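Weekly puzzle thread! Below is a chain. First person to post its structure in token form gets bragging rights.
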Amino acid sequence: MKTEKRSIMVKEMVLMGVFSTFVMDLGYVFIKLTKIVEPSMQPYHLGRWLLSMLQGTFMHADIGAVEAFGIEKPVALVAHYLTGIILVNAFLWLKKNTKVFSGSIFMGILFGLVTVVFPWFVMYPAMGFGFLGLDGPGNSNNVLFGLLNHSFFGIGITFWMWWVRKFTVKSHSLKSVRPIA
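Winning reply:
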């Protein structure tokens, strides 16, 4: 019974991570279509960056100028969704073990906003866009774009926690959903 319950919890975490990341991707499309702000990072940049790490290059002056690998988009997609699953696991761990992300309906959105620190301080500088993405090309505003896009990730978490799970999970309570350790 314990193994079956853990299996349900892992499945829910995976589904919640995929769902929240999908909401983030819908947010990306919305931001691009409405032209609220122009990002400098394109989805294939993540795949190109990860693949170049396998060749020993972690920092780039301009990730867009790096020779294409041909499989950047699928690599980026898998990495993006795995990251979403890992971040949801971190959110659930914090929710269970601290008072930081418990209580309010807005804690999922707040967590989504906090996750923007990774692109601001790791990805953007490593891809040649500078800290916070301030050196991005043209009219890009990576600070605002990152906040908007990651808020959609948080909206996905919030939507799952407060609405989706009420209709999909009947066999265990929210307190029993534990992160993978």
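Puzzle host: Confirmed. Bonus trivia for everyone else. Residues 171-176 have pLDDT under 50 and may be disordered.
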